[in-house]
Specification:
8-stranded mixed sheet
Length: about 525
Amino acid sequence: MRLDTPGEGAEVEVLVVGGGPVGLTARALLERWGVRALLVEKRRELSPFPRSRLVNVRSMEIFRRLGLAEEITAAAFAPEYGRIRFRDTLHAPDFATAAMIGVHAPVPESPVVGVLTSQDRLEPGLLGAAASEVRFGVELVGMAEEDEGVVAVLADHRSGEETRVRARYVLAADGANSTVRGRLGIGTAGPGSVGRLTTVVFDADLGSWSARQPAGVYLTSHGSFLPLYPEGGWAWIAPTPEDAAGADWSGLVSRSLGADVPVEVLRVQHWGVNAFVAERFRHGRILLAGDAAHAIPPAGGLGMNVGLADVHNLCWKLAGVLRGWAGPGLLDTYETERHPVAHRTLGQAVENSKLMFLVADVRREQLRTDADQAAERIEPPWSERYFAQLGLVLGVSYRSAAVLTDGSAPPGPSGNGAHYVPTASPGHRLPHLWLSGHRSTLDALGEWFTLLTPAATDGEPHAVPPWPLRVERLPEEHAASWGLRPRGALLVRPDGHIAARWSDGPLDEATLHDALTTLTGR
């Protein structure tokens, strides 16, 4: 297949539809594999709205590998903002609070710390992380699958012209109202649309109410208030009023603040809260990711992060198929692995929403029954569960043809939603341990399979064509903590999940060749 400059009849390897964080991250990951992608986004520019804000530790691990973690952290809030505070009004004292685990402070299970930022600050860095072409103001309006690819019809909203592009694969990250998913007739399971919210971006001098008790979200009975950037700016999020077109947004925000504070409204956005998982993530050569595959309510900050993990799982598989070291069947494991994660994430977001309503109900009951209780706090255990999600974030475990199970651990996550128990069993994320200095076991991973073994200097194979493979010496103390003997080994996939485990050796080249053949379906 020719790789011409995109235009009429141009050909690319992967067409990415959607220019949000998931699509932009997919583009950057594909470029690291040398895969030529074209990204199209129907909006004329990156979103000017804050939208998704929490970047969890797993997403920061992905961005660390892309060389973006330091840049993202530098533009984000300080760690003490990694907290949600519940108040009657913004200027009232907290009656409950919860820390965002892995954001408010480091956790020993990861080499990075999650951050609180705004999507409009995140996206420009993601856009600059790759050089492949991006077309804004261009919408996919038609597509047809062929034996060797997909023919997509793209409409340029500026010029009114339509062009055709042939792609080997299409990665659809075009949001909850996905055009691609709709054209494919893929249904969804779940509640669907669960409400309408409005975000009002505004300027006001609110520092005296928040500076001494910083938070990423102040949840009040009059809506949620969110500081947007370290240097200033605020957003107010509340249910969309019936007469939204004629609403006095400055007045609404001022009344919700509960104080006479001048408010300058900058932007207003209405949006729907959706809750569903697509019935399928793949249709031939077309694959769904992010909100196109699953719409997650915002409680707990899970939606964008699970979408980033989608493309981290998918892009190495696309690269393997396109470069010939994996069979097309490897792409079937994308849905097999990520579909259960989407359902579990949706369930956690629903539980988070219930916890939010619970604390509000308890507060109303406090105020109704005894005014003297107004100064009392609502104590854990509810606050320990709201953002304590390491088990969901780091404990994801895959069971598919791309994992050779050795029976060392039962299927399922390494821990529950709140708690994460590191394990070096097949299917699980490789645990983080420091190798030397500031180099983590996760830093040994990349656009290749990684063989971790204490016997790396004793003649273990360094090349098993055609697969990209690197061998990394694992300190014996780490190996022992993972139940590996001196000639044992872990084979780790490019997405950081353990593909195979040999508790003891020696591991010969034929065994490794057979494992890679099975894992990649070649």
